[in-house]
Task: structure prediction
Amino acid sequence: MNLEEKVGQMFIVPPEALDPDYTKYPVKGQKVRGTAVMNESFSANIRKYAPGGVLLFSPNIVDPEQTRQLISDMQKESKLPLFIAVDEEGGAVARISGKSSFGIPDLPTASKVADENEAYERGEYIGTYLKEYGFNCNFAPVADLNTNPSNRVIGSRAFGKDPEKVGNLVASEIKGFQKTDIITATKHFPGHGDTKGDTHNSAVYVTKTWEELLECEIVPFKKAMEAGTDMIMVAHISAEEVTHDGIPASLSRTMITGKLRNELGFDGVVVTDSMEMGAIYDNFTSEEATIMTIEAGADIVLMPTDYISAYNELIAAVKSGRITEARIDESVLRILELKDKYGLLGDEDNPAGEDR
Result:
């Protein structure tokens, strides 16, 4: 792989990032969504900028036939198989269930899950229909705790507020997804449940010390690691009493390399939360955020506000010596190992990795 191909693997983007017809940001960093079919420029940009994956939202997912076709078209145009990701938690956050065109009923929110068996069945159920439509990666489960009544962004998306119970439910849901060969991205490290703000809109802070986080918010993430979660998504939360610099965890070497990697021992793929969120968009350029998170130790940059610019900036940072190519190789190896684990890279008898 050349440098450009390696760098592309370190991004997961929405279809609109590759489609020049959708380029505006009417509200903060939120792009207009709507790309639901492959067009010529979209196709050319997949080939030229070679992202590691694509994340689909509700406007990109119209009905089963269109969804399968869009995913198939994107995979055909990509030199390396793509992560095809979605936020399908079930309940409050779902892009497929509840849509009349799919006929899949809404699931109850995670807060209604009664036990580990139900959590397992939930993961297996969601994973089964995601696989049917061509997805291979789900940004779930939510490992946050619903401990702050003022928190509006997590709430019922969490399994509950007891660290041990939530951790066991998270681990069980991961195993359900694993049964269906769906890659899991457990979120939102180091825990979004005990915050008052919403990183979609602005900077958010957690005031607990690392020791306090270890006793509470980190417990479900450790359980997720033990269950073999493939990815951990790092939030744009500033852990002031840990880093003492106000930098969001998603951009913090202390949080990603120091705590998540070295102390907790996570050796899977680290993906950021969406870089379009206000906590990043209002305070950092797309290029700055990309360089900072790679220097901090992240493997995948999710949805930079300007993918092409961020991609070019990361290449430039390597060519200038600011970031070594060895650092890039470290992340790309994790990404390719994960794709290979799930049969996405294929083999001599199945070069495209079909029907895995």
Summary: Confidence is low (pLDDT under 50) at residues 348-356.
